[in-house]
Specification:
The chain is built from six helices and 14 strands. By secondary structure, it is of the alpha/beta class. The chain has a seven-stranded mixed beta sheet with strand order 6-5-4-3-2-1-14. Helix 5 runs parallel beside helix 6. The longest helix is centred in the middle third of the chain and has 11 residues. The protein is globular, with a radius of gyration of 17 Å.
Length: 246
Amino acid sequence: MKLILLGTNGYHPNDRRQTACMMLPEVGVLLDAGTAIYRASEYLQTESLDIFLTHTHLDHVFGLTFLYDMLYAHQVNEVTVHALPEKLAAIGEHLFAEPLFPVKPPFKTKALKETTVLRDGAKLTHFPLEHPGGSIGYRIDWPDRSMAYVTDTTARLDAPYVSKIAGVDVLLHECQLRDGDEEFARITGHSCTTPVAQVAAHAKVGRLILVHLSPTSTDDDPIDLDVARAIFPATEIGEDRMQIEF
């Protein structure tokens, strides 16, 4: 299975990274719809597209307004946006309010179920995350592999979501802040380096990819990778267009 990180920033894009959008091209799935969504047409291998949103903060949904370009560039028969009902309502009421975006792109919406079966038979489940305004994480299980996507939350070992990601082969986890910014992380609902690595080690995941990085840095290492690897050696910093085979 191939996982492509189309966008790895949080909050806003910078000259190196676009905002959150992760892709499973073989099954036509996007996790979040940040500003990197315009890249999806280069990789899509299916004639339909399912977009699963974690929440509706703009850095995770603004790419929905780019769908016209993407649909023009690639033959897509159907686009479905999946989210919790209140988040779908917010998109319709605010993001596509007529004064802001008068002609909505042609996509359907569907309220998330407890379990969604993807086109290849994989099971996608979701779980709540602590974040201002509310957010969710995703886990996808195939018979022989698994992954989880956790963004926009404050990592800590006693967080309820930790049990939901136990044993996954690949964990995408937000890491917007370096150690030392714990209070700001708590207020804004984001994570610092050490707690994220501790969560990965405690959950016994196979591989940790750090995403939702700070847009204030375009450095190769915006989060002190050595700190994370001292706790969980199989840690990498996500880069836009990074391709992960698992």
